[in-house]
Specification:
The protein is an alpha/beta fold. It has eleven helices and twelve strands. About 50% of the residues are buried.
Length: about 375
């Protein structure tokens, strides 16, 4: 059975004020009470039944652990047959032993993703605020002691931390973490004030070259052009590939579907590439029930308190337009890589036109 990927922001409330955050405000004004959260998850579950698909849901915020209903929601979803996997994205500030005990015991919730945007305190705290690095590292130690969850670091790459990719890679290996997820910075919300931090096309290519080198993958960089984000798995039990087909279609780990590439010479390391899920097999839900194609593509396509997920998915003009590559503009329309549509979120943030060409593409 196929999976559908949902990133559910259950609150905007957050204790941090990260310079690059895609949020504009950090209060709970748009938070829904439990009765309306139930309306949304019932909407999701009924659509899963209609589509005969499993739902793969990541709960985040803001800081999701600041919303009291977060544990209740996770426990409820865990019990539903329509849910295949649950995970949590957090800044780590509130991941103490008591919270880990509350999160434990779930069959489907096994992955905690902690945001860290620098391998050093100086770099991370410049972006995320004083003390954020030490809190995140303490959270990692706490979760590791519980020994019940996989830990992935969430790293948003931009000019100020691009040169720390090697260091964050080594930090993950040193602490024996399970994964490192790398996403591109797109200037939204607070991040608009540091728009100059967005990577240019040459820097994005440098990043992909670095990842191929770190994972010792003998591959053409053009092969990974369709991927919008990357994840490195450090403790993979899967054997490395024995052929030249290093990218294989597969749905793994959380937010987007990932395709798998194997490190030559090590069975325990995988480089995963995430193609764009917008309009294909994923979306984002905001605290008030508004639906975005993805969190960085902040153009509303409906609200789950007003319409069914199925209706939004099938009838949204935005989603239908981005599904057809013929609607794209510039080099994205003419590109010979059929499975790539560029980053629609990046195009929309920088030009106001979600069909414009992706200016980070170096192809």
């Amino acid at each position: 059975m196929d999976e559908f990927y949902i990133q559910w922001h259950i609150t905007n409330l957050c204790n941090l004020r990260c310079r690059h955050c895609y949020q504009e405000y950090f209060d709970s004004k748009e938070d829904l009470p439990w009765t309306k959260l139930k309306t949304i998850y019932e909407n999701i579950l009924s659509t899963a039944q209609e589509w005969k698909k499993k739902m793969h849901i990541t709960i985040t915020g803001g800081e999701p652990l600041l919303k009291k209903e977060s544990f209740l929601l996770l426990n409820y979803l865990d019990a539903k047959d329509e849910i295949s996997e649950l995970s949590l994205i957090t800044n780590g500030s509130f991941l103490n032993q008591e919270v880990c005990q509350q999160l434990d015991g779930s069959d489907k919730f096994k992955k905690i993703k902690i945001s860290l945007d620098g391998a050093s305190e100086k770099t991370n705290d410049y972006l995320r605020g004083k003390g954020a690095f030490s809190k995140a590292m303490k959270a990692i130690e706490t979760v590791k002691k519980s020994n019940n969850f996989q830990i992935t670091l969430m790293f948003t790459v931009m000019k100020s931390n691009l040169r720390e990719i090697d260091d964050i890679f080594n930090l993950c290996k040193e602490f024996k973490l399970d994964g490192l997820m790398i996403e591109r910075f797109i200037p939204l919300g607070q991040g608009v004030s540091i728009e100059e931090q967005i990577l240019d096309k040459n820097e994005w290519k440098d990043l992909t070259d670095t990842l191929l080198s770190l994972c010792r993958i003998n591959s053409s960089p053009e092969e990974i052009l369709p991927y919008r984000a990357f994840q490195i798995k450090f403790n993979s039990p899967r054997p490395f590939a024995q052929n030249n087909d290093i990218f294989q279609n597969s749905h793994i780990h959380g937010l987007p579907p990932f395709s798998r590439a194997k490190e030559r010479g090590s069975p325990n390391l995988e480089l995963l590439g995430a193609p764009c899920t917008a309009g294909t097999d994923g979306l984002c839900i905001m605290p008030d029930g508004t639906v975005y194609p993805c969190r960085r593509f902040n153009l509303p396509v409906g609200n789950l308190l007003e319409k069914s997920l199925s209706e939004i998915w099938q009838n949204s003009e935005v989603l239908n337009k981005i599904r057809d590559k013929n609607n794209l503009q510039g080099k994205c329309k003419e590109c010979s890589i059929n499975e790539c549509r560029g980053c629609r979120a990046n195009a929309f943030a920088l030009t106001g036109d979600y069909l414009a060409e992706d200016n980070q593409c170096w192809y």
